[in-house]
Amino acid sequence: MDILLYLIISFAIPWIIWTFMNLQGLFGTVTYILLSAIIMWMPASAAAIVHLLYKRPVISFSWKAAIRKNLKYYILSWFMPLILSLLGSLVYFMIFREKFSLVNLESTQMPLHVFLMTTLLAIIPASLLNMFFALGEETGWRGFLYPALSIKYGKTKASLITGIIWGIWHTPSNMMGYNYGLGYYGYPFTGIAAMCLSCIVLGIWCSFLAEKTNSIWVPSLFHGSVNAAGTLGIIFLRPGTSYLSGPGITGIIPSIIAGLLLVPFSHMTEKEEQMIDKNKLPSPSWHQSRGI
User: Fold this and answer.
1) 53 exposure class (CB count in 10 Å sphere: 0-12, 13-18, 19+)
2) % helix / strand / coil in the chain, to the nearest 5?
């Protein structure tokens, strides 16, 4: 019942607000962006409400940043999304060379190398800013929902279910063209499926980071960096082209590339935990918390 209530709260208010803004034609406006940033804190709010009603922990990880202890994971979380974005875009444009274009850069009146350097430098502080908004989602998805589902279904199924739920949660915004634009084949169902794929892959890595560091801040930084760097490749996309398959990080091809790189680490973590159980050593992961 606690998980069901969490999902109802997490979905109801954001979907109502997003739908209202869509009907009012506010998509893409400053109001839409600001309210969407606030909406990112609804999963955390839902976890807090469930905590008050059912006395469940808000998160099964630590609120402490523990920067010195987890410094390498913070650095990895900060820059990995940029690497994934660049690599996913590279593979996408290698497959679809005819979709590469520099026409979107003409309005900037900057040489390509200057534009790229400026953009890359802007992504670094933007990742830190986005981290505080991403913390709202990570508190709910990774801090509350994933551990709760893991106890019921195991880690693998919990990752899949959490990713699907996280992907579907974005539906009202995606239907207005936020991640994939409009008019792509199979709209909007293929977009929903692509978002679920992306959220499963990125969610597995977020769970890995949370378990490895026992801090909710590390996956939040990764999530914030994804939001900052994820659309870099779209700048080079020929105007009028659908970006369902890429080159944005939530596109199908970049998601597959990210999955091939990130998912194996989750299996490594699972093997480590099995070794810990076998040797009867205390686990450093969220399993220490038995409240959920």
Assistant:
1) exposed
2) 75, 0, 25
145: tokens are: 């929902």
Closest CA to 211 of 292, 141, 143, 134: 143
The pTM assigned to this predicted structure is 0.89
Q: How far apart are CA 97 and CA 88, in angstroms?
A: 14
Q: Which residues pair with 215 in a beta bridge?
A: 62
Q: pLDDT tens across 84-129, in order?
A: 999 999 999 999 999 999 888 877 777 777 777 888 778 888 999 9
pLDDT in tens, 211-257: 999 999 999 999 999 999 999 999 899 988 889 999 999 999 999 99
User: What torsion, rounded to 10 degrees, do the Cα atoms 18, 22, 24, 26 define?
Assistant: 90
Dihedral through CA 222, CA 38, CA 17, CA 25, nearest 10?
Answer: -90
